[in-house]
Design brief:
Length: about 650
């Protein structure tokens, strides 16, 4: 691996790439890309951080930053509270801890082991702490400097494969913060801290945008094997998220260019296309055999165009199928890494080869390639992301992911990028998060009768929001109460209002015409949650007419008049019933007369209208054509003139 020093005013950071044959060429080209040829721009490696809060002792209560280690599994979207332990022996953690007391905290809380920097790799320290039972590790810096990222060592150093076995989070803290923790522990105080990653991953909206900087080369050793295994293992999750519109994924590929002085050298002609503009190292690190770097650049370009063309037809997720199939069917190890093999894969996935070739352009032309030029521009950090200097690199919501490139760990990081309550179902399974609503309903409101709850599980924890249940909206604070509002609320537990039935009649204090509240119906009195029948007869509210008798009923009353009089409720009065035969005869006669008059009028109207229309039509026609009478008059005139 090549290690370059960052050129900057304050800090020095490594930039890692696979070791090529021609070191000077790579050094110059990388510096040309990262620093620019005309305007000096410093290469920038961003340190991703998490928050550390000291909860006790009270004298140490404060907030600090920790730089997230580039190995293990940072708990993106989560937090961990634990008791700090500083080993009495082997505080650098370079050897296995034999003392069982090392991992024991002074309380029931998980142990967070504090170690000193120096003498061995960061990852080895964390591995030994994990083996001793630590839930997390803090490494205290040994010099006063800005925080740096703890990176993993080269694969050939990891003879036991411990790097991939690290499952706990870790962070580097400043020297001064580490010294204050050690001082408190030495004085016999219990130090409780909270490691918080909830804001380490931005979560602005309901869609997560992420990039994967990778390489089509499968001959770069363990690192290439890891990134291809990740593609195959994560493909299912990625395609579910992409098909559902939850994520926007974009693959990227790192290239560099050949300095002008070396364009005609064998190193450039074999490792670059477009006259030295886009280059990749030789896969076997031997220019005399196997594949060339330019073969890798061409396949990188093809895979970018596969994604571009598939995205145009709303099939962006096909990239995952193409890359994983290409790796299986067109492996360098089997000498099938070729354009022909790639086209066979494209045909099997129904990808338009002509469009992809047009996207790729002419690799022999002495011009800029629009696709690869954009990749080189994006390689340089913009905004908060920083430069992409390590392969592979995952960027989520413009933040570089730190940690192991593994299916579940990456899914957790992506899920942490969703705005609360907008996470897809794949983010809410028990493998990657805990459903806090299952225990004591998350401390939220719940209706014991209908079991409707205001607790809503999210990736970061839970929120208490009054729900929409069975088409009915609830309003409230979500913690102590929620009330049904709006249309349809009466169908759900009668809207929480009074209701009762007697003698086949049902009355309710809930009305669908009112969005909120309870009101006792007519005939009842109360606050809407309890209602009592009103005795209208006893309270003098009905049957006040002369000679009326009142009888109370549940929810109403009956009123009768004396004799043959008829009771009119609206006027609270009695009127006489008209039942004589003469009256019926008069009514029928009057009705018949009215009907007869109406029919006669209608017939007369029809006759007059028809006569009028006929005369009008005749008058109009006479202006344009002779009629029989007119024709006879004309003939008579002709005969008279001839005599």
């Amino acid at each position: 691996m090549l290690q370059l020093l960052r050129i900057g005013p304050k800090t020095i950071t490594r930039i890692r790439f696979p070791m090529p044959i021609f070191v000077e060429f790579v050094v110059l080209s990388l510096l040309s890309i990262l620093l620019g040829s005309s305007t000096p721009v410093y290469a920038r490696f961003v340190v991703e951080k998490n928050s550390i809060t000291v909860l006790s002792p009270e004298s140490l209560r404060s907030n600090h930053d920790g730089s997230i280690g580039n190995f293990g599994v940072p708990d993106y979207g989560g937090s961990l509270m634990g008791s700090v332990v500083y080993p009495k022996k082997g505080s650098k953690g370079c050897t296995t801890f034999e003392d069982n007391e090392t991992s024991k905290s002074r309380s029931y809380l998980p142990s967070i082991i504090l170690l000193d920097r120096g003498e061995c790799y960061f990852a080895l320290k964390v591995w030994h702490a994990q083996e001793a039972g630590a839930a997390a590790v803090l490494v205290a810096d040994n010099i006063d400097e800005p925080l740096i990222t703890m990176d993993s060592p080269e694969e050939n150093i990891d003879t036991d494969g411990y790097i991939e076995k690290i499952k706990i989070p870790s962070a580097l803290v400043s020297r001064s913060f580490g010294e204050s923790l050690k001082k408190a522990l030495k004085n016999g105080e219990e130090v409780v801290i909270k490691l918080d990653w909830t804001e380490s991953m931005p979560h602005p909206d309901e869609r997560v945008e992420y990039e994967f900087w990778t390489n089509s080369n499968d001959e770069c050793g363990v690192r290439c094997d890891k990134q291809m295994n990740f593609v195959k293992n994560f493909k299912g999750h990625a395609q579910i998220l992409e098909r559902g519109g939850y994520t926007l994924f974009t693959p990227h590929y790192i290239t560099w260019y050949c300095p002008e002085a070396f364009i005609l050298t064998r190193q450039c002609t074999s490792q670059c296309i477009n006259h030295g503009r886009y280059c990749a190292p030789d896969p076997e690190q031997d220019l005399a055999e196997g594949y060339d770097g330019k073969d890798v650049v061409l396949e990188n370009l093809r895979q970018i165009c596969v994604h571009r063309v598939a995205n145009e037809s709303n099939r962006s997720w096909v990239w995952w199928d193409f890359v994983s199939d290409f790796h299986i069917r067109c492996s360098m190890k089997e000498k099938r890494y070729s354009k022909e093999c790639a086209e066979d894969v494209m045909k099997s996935l129904d990808l338009p080869i002509e469009k992809i070739e047009k996207c790729m352009g002419d690799p022999t032309a002495n011009v800029e390639n629009e696709v690869l030029k954009r990749e080189q521009d994006l390689q340089v950090g913009r905004g908060s992301r920083g430069d992409v200097t390590i392969l592979p690199t995952l960027v989520i919501n413009n933040v570089q992911y730190r940690g192991k490139l593994e299916r579940t760990a990456v899914l957790k990081a992506i899920c942490a990028g969703f705005k609360e309550t907008t996470e897809p179902a794949v983010c809410l399974n028990g493998d990657i998060e805990t459903n806090e609503c299952l225990e004591r309903n998350g401390g939220c409101w719940r209706d014991p009768r209908s079991n409707i709850s205001a607790c809503k599980d999210t990736f970061r924890g839970r929120v208490c929001e009054c729900p929409v249940a069975n088409g009915v909206q609830y309003h409230g604070d979500g913690y102590t109460y929620c009330k049904a509002v709006g249309p349809g609320r009466c169908a759900l537990d009668n809207g929480g209002c009074w209701s009762d039935s007697k003698n086949g009649n049902t009355f309710s204090a809930c009305s669908d015409s009112e969005l909120t509240g309870c009101r006792c119906p007519s005939g009842f009195r109360g606050d809407g949650h309890t209602c009592e029948d009103i005795n209208e007869c006893k309270e003098g509210l009905a049957c006040q007419c002369n000679g009326c008798t009142c009888s109370n009923t549940w929810g109403g009353y009956d009123c009768k008049c004396k004799g043959d009089l008829l009771y009119i409720k609206e006027q609270d009065t009695c009127i006489a019933k008209n039942t004589s035969k003469f009256a019926w005869f008069v009514s029928i006669f009057v009705l018949a007369a009215v009907v007869g008059t109406g029919l006669a009028g209608y017939m007369f109207y029809k006759y007059r209208l028809r006569s009028y229309m006929d005369s009008e039509i005749m008058a109009i026609m006479s202006q344009y054509m002779p009629i029989d009478n007119q024709q006879n008059e004309v003939e008579s005139l002709r005969q008279g003139s001839s005599v």
